[in-house]
């Protein structure tokens, strides 16, 4: 598992978070998947790969309702949205971000959804 963790970290730090995510998907039913997912979510957040960080924190939050996972997911969704607005992330990623925010029972999530949907309407992006 140590090799897998370092491989995921190398992918993330070399700008290939999708490959780290695919590594997690291959191992998601193993005993060590929680540890790998924490690493992916946190390292992706640190490196600015917010979409994959949000996906990771979403699964972590569903596995364990620790408030830190919601806070990570909230920050990662905001970061991903900022990247979409700036044109650094594809606009269709917004649908996925909205879906992640709908999977939670936090009023802040509802507020974020309203803001993102309003921006999408203004910019003629179907969501």
UniProtKB/TrEMBL annotation:
Annotated localization: Cell projection, Cilium
Gene Ontology CC terms, in alphabetical order: ciliary basal body; ciliary base; intraciliary transport particle B
Biological process, per Gene Ontology: intraciliary anterograde transport; intraciliary transport involved in cilium assembly
Chief location: other
Signal sequence range: none
GO molecular function: intraciliary transport particle B binding
PANTHER family xrefs: INTRAFLAGELLAR TRANSPORT PROTEIN 56 (PTHR14781:SF0)
Protein name: Uncharacterized protein
Native species: Adineta steineri
